Amino acid sequence: MGHLLSLALLAVDCVVRAWRIQLAVWTAGGRVSFRHAFRLNLYGEAASQVTPNRLGGEPARFLGLNEARVRPVTGLVAIGVEVAAEWPVFLIVGAALFAYYVPDWRDAAHTWLRRHRAGELVTIEIIALVVLLTIYLLQRLALSGMIRHRVRRQWRVAWAHVRRAPWWVLGAGALLTVVSVTARALILPALAWEMKGHPPFAQMFFGALALIHAPLVVPLPSGGGGLEVAFLNGFAGDFGSHQVTMLLLWRFYTAVLLTGLGVYALVRELGLPAAVQLFKIGWGKRTGEKT
């Protein structure tokens, strides 16, 4: 029963993500079939799992949009619309995780504001300065020509279209993102459905939710083993003698299965060289590249 529920939740995740990119492409003025939308998300899943900080995901999906004969600018706009709908949900997820794992955050914030002043204010000012300096350097790179004019123009066009996207589109994209994230986080409780003495639902759900999004901030691919260590130490619950088994099953359904399907689809449709180039993203300069 647990395996059937897990497969059903994974199917829901894949279907709503395909609908989301279809909606984003339609908003950008293009069209993409459900088959292509489903497949390009497999590309993105595979590339994001094997590249640091999931950096290969968006280029792989953009390549899938090109394969579906979506114009490059339209593809950039679609991905921009999708990201604009995703990130508010990610911020809400972060707030929910913070509220769950730090239940006394109000008291801690009050104590911090009462006892800390100069040192923390300097830290905040340094962070703000780094952000402003980064923006300044990006602007200088664009003006100096180090960023190609065509790329700059396409990103300007894409951003302009994202800003003009109807609010209901962003709301629908955010709702689909909520369904997708929730379905994947529910896979762990589904696997423990018939297990006697399983951990509390909230601990499994929020633990899985945190571990699923950890690769966004952990530099190594797919969490770099940190997810496994956290899971084995009971971050998502204590499953007793089934701890290793639950880890293997959970990683299979949330990472390995779609990654394998994505690699197969990517190599079959676009060829091994294209797959290799995507999987190199985030690993530094290519071997033999001229400096």
Uncertain runs are: 146-151, 285-291
- The rounded distance between the terminal residues' Cα atoms is 56 Å
Order of helices and strands: HHHHHHHHHHHHH
Beta strand count: 0
Q: Proportion of β residues?
A: under 5%
Shape, principal axes of CA atoms:
globular
Number of helices: 13
Oligomeric state as shown: single chain
Sum this structure up briefly.
The protein has about 290 residues and is mainly α.
Please explain how this structure is put together.
This protein is mostly helical and 291 residues long. The chain has one domain. Helices cover 74% and strands 0% of the residues. Helix 2 (34-49) runs antiparallel to helix 3 (57-67), helix 3 (57-67) runs antiparallel to helix 4 (72-101) and helix 4 crosses helix 8. The longest helix has 30 residues, at 72-101. Mean pLDDT is 78; it is low at 146-151 and 285-291.
Which key features would you list for this structure?
single chain; 291 residues; mainly alpha; globular; disordered C terminus
Describe the SSE topology.
Elements: H1 2-27, H2 34-49, H3 57-67, H4 72-101, H5 105-115, H6 118-144, H7 149-163, H8 167-185, H9 187-191, H10 201-213, H11 226-232, H12 243-270, H13 272-279
Helix pairs in contact: 1-2, 1-4, 1-8, 2-3, 2-12, 3-4, 4-7, 4-8, 8-10, 12-13
